[in-house]
Every structure is written in structure tokens, then in C-alpha cells.
Amino acid sequence: MPLVITFIALGLIGSVLMFASDMLLYFTPGAYDMDGTLKPYMRIMRDIPTARVRAGGALGPVAAFLYVTGFLVMFASMLVAMACP
């Protein structure tokens, strides 16, 4: 049982890191004129500091690994449930 709790905790940490990574990459306070094209998004990404983009990009794969590790608990539980009649 402690191993299951560890995997669940890793999954939760991964999901929080994924959220933080997405916020580093995409969140920008301020009003941008969204005109239905990709030009406003290009302006937003152009104005983001390089260090912020690198930090968000580096956090993403780490967060994905932890997120998938947490998902393994659900997959293992499904396998155990299928094996028991």
C-alpha cells in the first residue's frame, strides 16, 4: 500500500509541475487584440523572456514523466481488477 501512495503522490506532483510549466510557457498578463489569426500568439511568444521559455520547456518532460508514473497506479489497479473474478 505505501508504494501505491508513493505513485499517487508522484502523479499529483507531476500534474502540478505540468500546470506550472504551462503557465510559464503560455500565461501572459495583459490585453492582446485577438483577431482570429495566429499573429497575437506570435507576439505573445516573442515577448516572453528566453529564460522563462527554457524553464517551462525543461519542466514539461519532467512533469510528464511523473504524471505517467502516477497513471501507472490506475493501469496496475485495472489489471488486478481484471485478474480477480
Describe the overall structure.
The protein is an all-alpha fold. The chain is 80% helix and 0% strand. The protein contains three helices and no strands. It has helices at 2-26, 39-47, 50-83. Helix 1 (2-26) runs antiparallel to helix 3 (50-83). The radius of gyration is 19 Å and the shape is elongated.
Give a brief description.
It is built from three helices and no strands.
Write the layout of secondary structure elements.
Blueprint: H1 2-26, H2 39-47, H3 50-83
Helix pairs in contact: 1-3
Features:
85 residues, mainly alpha, 3 helices, 80% helix
What number is the mean pLDDT?
86
Shape: elongated
Range of strand content? under 5%
SSE arrangement, N to C: HHH
Number of helices: 3
Structural class: mainly alpha
Beta strand count: 0
Helix content range? over 70%
| Uncertain runs | none
- Between the first and last Cα atoms, what is the distance in angstroms? 21 Å
Rg estimate, integer Å: 19 Å
How many strands, what sense, and barrel or not for the largest sheet? none
